[in-house]
Amino acid sequence: MSADQAPFFIVGVDRSGTTVLRLVLDRGGVAIPPESMFLADFASVRRAGVLDDPDRAAAFVARVWEHPRVRAWGLRAKPPQVPLGLTHEQAYRFAVESPFRAYALEHGKDRWADKTPYYLGRLDELDAVWPGARFVVLVRDGRDVALSLLGVPFGPNNVWAAARVWARGIRRGLEAERRFPGRVVTVRYEDFVADPATETARLCEFLDLAFDEDMLAIERTDPAKLDRDKAAWFTGLSEGINAAGAGRWRQDLSPHDQALFVGLAGAELESLGYETGPARRPSALAAALYGAQDALLRAANLVRLRIVGEGGRELGYVLRRKVGRA
Predict the structure, then answer these.
(1) For 122, 138, 168, 253, which has the most beta carbons within 10 A of its beta carbon?
(2) CA 154 to each of CA 10, 151, 205, 214, 299: distance values in angstroms, whole numbers, following the listed order
């Protein structure tokens, strides 16, 4: 990866298929580690403008490498020394790029990219660090996204909350297309799993990657490429790319919940070419009850996932993200 070649970022609403896409592209000429998150967590450091001081820059590199997401990558390398004479902006970019570059080298590649759905709401931050960065926005029928989210211990906990989260994410993706012309490509999950070769070739052309049919054989991916704490959420990956998860909402989502989702996110479904159907908007009381249930379960899941499951190693960062202080 040349010094002036900007990375690309795969983003989208959680459970839209970004992990599948990451594994496909990672089998090509780019290394894409598990989700990073630290580019959001350290945004305040970039805004502070103090890394033109060599000691502060060196301390920041060490801090980046101590982030729990970076530590989970299991890098064998040590944090690099910061070159002298860098501006704050150069030092910041050097620091946050360094674990990505180390990950790429340890996997025999000189180009890196990132797959972190959360960054869909932080594209301005990524653009500030890498003005030439490209963005791959993966979208999926929100009703299938809702079904998938209800099976994992993070994110929304009912269809009302899932519809709101999904619709907001879709609007962000559409806004990104307007704000970063020529730098954003939107991929529909359903199109990708129906014809992965065509969609992957299209993506590779956009991202300046060489396409090879072997990229589609994600069932042969080393399991170590997955975050070990989250591997249980992606058991279907061993079966390779398939369309089994597309359109499940027709059978698995009740007519009431289908109508509720359309009532809250029908415009966004239509904007992406998805069918809609009957729509139902909840009363103010029902919306309040849905919101209260979601908030209660989110708190319980925070304890279950971040304290019990992860031993609190990322809890401080998670809480700062939730209050908007990252």
Answers:
(1) 138
(2) 19, 9, 34, 33, 10
